[in-house]
Design brief:
Strand order of the largest sheet: 2-3-4-6-7
Largest sheet: 5 strands, mixed
Strand content: 25-35%
Distance between the termini: 55 Å
Shape: globular
Helix content: 40-55%
């Protein structure tokens, strides 16, 4: 699945893409990350099959966290498409990839982590491997968040 870079930038800027949103609690996300993300993965696969750009978001309602799956030409969040035109040749075609994005003030200093999961076609054709990659990625992010919470409790000065 490919897109001309400028056409991709224009589509995102005009919100010419499909969206899906689900909600969960932090407890459910930590206990059942694969199950909470499964509807997002299914939605992204469906949109790839229809050759449409897409973004699926899981809002974690009782914390300042969201997790997304996004189709993009580069490992930047979709809200940063203006930057894409500065670092990529806009007249070229580029492969679309599925990226996993987590936003949380506790994930790292920037509050954002984004990683490629698979090329869009691979995400559909090798769904089991892609799901394993998402599983591993989710568990790593949860470990970081839990460590940050533990460290915060251990280092915060009690008043």
């Amino acid at each position: 699945m490919k897109r001309e870079v400028q056409a991709f930038i224009n589509a995102v800027a005009e919100d010419d893409m499909q969206h899906f949103t689900a909600e969960t609690t932090v407890a459910d996300f930590y206990d059942k990350p694969d199950q909470t993300m499964a509807p997002l993965a299914a939605f992204i696969r469906e949109q790839i099959g229809a050759d449409k750009l897409a973004q699926a978001e899981l809002k974690v309602t009782d914390t300042e966290m969201s997790v997304r799956l996004e189709l993009s030409v580069i490992n930047l969040p979709l809200q940063d498409t203006k930057t894409i035109g500065k670092i990529m040749e806009t007249s070229e075609e580029a492969d679309l990839n599925v990226y996993a994005v987590i936003e949380s003030p506790d994930i790292n200093v920037s509050g954002l982590r984004i990683d490629a999961l698979a090329p869009a076609t691979t995400y559909v054709e090798q769904a089991k491997v892609a799901d394993e990659s998402l599983h591993d990625w989710l568990n790593l992010q949860i470990e970081k968040l839990q460590a940050a919470a533990t460290n915060k409790e251990a280092t915060d000065v009690k008043k």
